[in-house]
Specification:
This protein has 214 residues and is mainly α. 72% of the residues lie in helices and 0% in strands. The radius of gyration is 20 Å and the shape is elongated. The N terminus is likely disordered.
Length: 214
């Protein structure tokens, strides 16, 4: 289902900013970043362009606001993972949240940001910060689980974190572009791989140093 339109009743500053970000998401998904103007976002949010600029002075500021909101949500997700006794079960719940419960438009927006990151330094910075945060927090989660004795202590926590993030990124791409994406089946299959990793039944290969050039 699409991202729902905002309520237009009077609200506070934080709610107005959230309303603008929701409107920007819908515009970016529908029209792309380049074709979307601040006037488009203002109209979608049900406010004047002048009022919009009080909250976000540019389109780049809107993108930064979206990124910050997503990072805050990611932080809450990792807080849940860090406190979970069963990491795989917690990952399963997060997988269904992001690939079943969230609207497909969220995955489309992620894919657009990644595409823009290949040519726009501002988007590259946003994507890079998000990726470093995700890998860093995931590494902490796995290291803590190793300390509790709930996953294989021989694993390199960062290698596994990078691999899990790679698998999650692939699910975002498939959710965005595959018409008959089966979230239940695909999340279940990815979790089976992650479970095998964390139990030590398979492990990522260490990165070898490049051969010296003769």
């Amino acid at each position: 289902m699409p991202i729902p339109p905002p309520a237009l009743e009077a609200d506070g500053t934080a709610n107005r900013a959230a309303r603008i970000l929701d409107a920007a998401e819908r515009c970016f998904v529908r029209q792309g970043f380049h074709r979307t103007t601040m006037q488009d976002v203002a109209a979608e949010a049900g406010m004047s362009a002048g009022n919009l600029y009080r909250y976000f002075p540019s389109k780049d500021a809107v993108v930064a606001g979206l990124a910050e909101r997503d990072r805050a949500e990611m932080s809450r997700d990792f807080d849940v993972l860090a406190s979970a006794d069963d990491v795989v079960a917690a990952l399963d719940a997060l997988g269904h949240k992001h690939f079943s419960d969230e609207p497909r438009e969220k995955a489309i927006l992620v894919l657009q940001i990644w595409a823009e990151a290949t040519r726009d330094p501002a988007f590259a910075d946003v994507a890079g910060v998000f990726e470093r945060d995700a890998v860093g927090r995931m590494t902490q989660v796995f290291a803590q689980a190793q300390a509790r004795g709930t996953i294989d202590p021989a694993l390199d926590a960062r290698d596994v974190a990078v691999l899990v993030c790679t698998l999650a990124n692939g699910l975002f791409v498939r959710r965005a572009i595959v018409p008959d994406f089966d979230s239940g089946r695909e999340v279940r299959n990815v979790l089976a791989v992650i479970g095998a990793l964390l139990s030590g039944r398979c492990a990522p290969q260490p990165v070898s140093a490049p051969e010296p050039v003769p």
